[in-house]
Amino acid sequence: MGFIIKGFLLALALVSCATTEDSRYRDTSALERPPILAGNRPKGMPRVTDNSTIPKKRYEKGLGSDVYITTTTPVQLRIKHHFDYAWTTLDLALKQSKVEITDHDHDKGLYYVSYDADSSFFSKKENQAIYLLTLESDGLETKITAALGNAAEQLSAGNHGEQRGPAVDNSANQPADGAEKLLQSLYETIRDDLKEE
Questions:
Q1: Which CATH code fits 64-193?
Q2: What Å distances lie between residue 121 and 116, 118, 124, 177, CA to CA?
Q3: Which secondary-structure segment (H or E) carries 179?
Q4: Is the pLDDT score of 170 beyond 70?
């Protein structure tokens, strides 16, 4: 019996609430609305929309179209990134290509590397010469050039590494297009095979 009385009182309370005509629950004019902000752009100026996107992480190897090689003389390898990114990218490419870095100077943008332009399976380390890679910031890109080191650079930078005995100047044995071959090899590594560490 108590259950029936409680149910009856509950139903009576619900009916009494439903029939109340209180205007404060029906009028929405007092609800908070966001403010209307005045535009900062002068009249007549077109509205500019930001269509930029956040670059997605690459899942493929290499930089792809973010690197290219020029046909100018001398040949240049260009990376479409700022200097520090290009420096790190070139360092990775040299290590992955197994090109020995004999010396480097980040502030001057210089890498001294030991490279044999006519390398083959039977090539010896003694046939390698010192090449100078120079990185320069050029607007939004970084350009990389290569040149065969001079005789002093051949003898000073050539003393690093596993070489036993006196340093040898192998620059005379290198082909005329040795610097271009080095840049082409690095270009292919950076474009297609560069792996992040």
A1: 3.30.530.50
A2: 12, 10, 9, 20
A3: helix 178-188
A4: no
Q: What are phi and psi of 33, to 5 degrees?
A: -120, 150
Q: Which 3 state secondary structure label does DSSP give 58?
A: coil
Rounded distance between C-alpha atoms, residue 195 and residue 188, angstroms: 13
* Token pair for 189: 């590594």
Residue 129 contacts residue 149 (beta carbons within 8 Å): yes
Q: How many Å apart are CA 22 and CA 24, to the nearest integer?
A: 6
- What is the bridge-based pairing of β-strands 110-115 and 100-105? antiparallel
- pLDDT given at position 193: 81
Quote the percentage of the chain above a pLDDT of 90. Answer: 28
- Give per-residue pLDDT as tens, 68-95: 999 888 899 999 999 999 999 999 999 9
- Per-residue model confidence (pLDDT) at position 20: 55
- Own/partner long-range contacts of 102-110 (Cβ < 8 Å, ≥24 apart): 102/130, 102/157, 102/158, 102/160, 102/161, 103/157, 103/160, 109/83, 109/134, 109/135, 109/136, 110/134, 110/135
d(CA 154, CA 148): 9
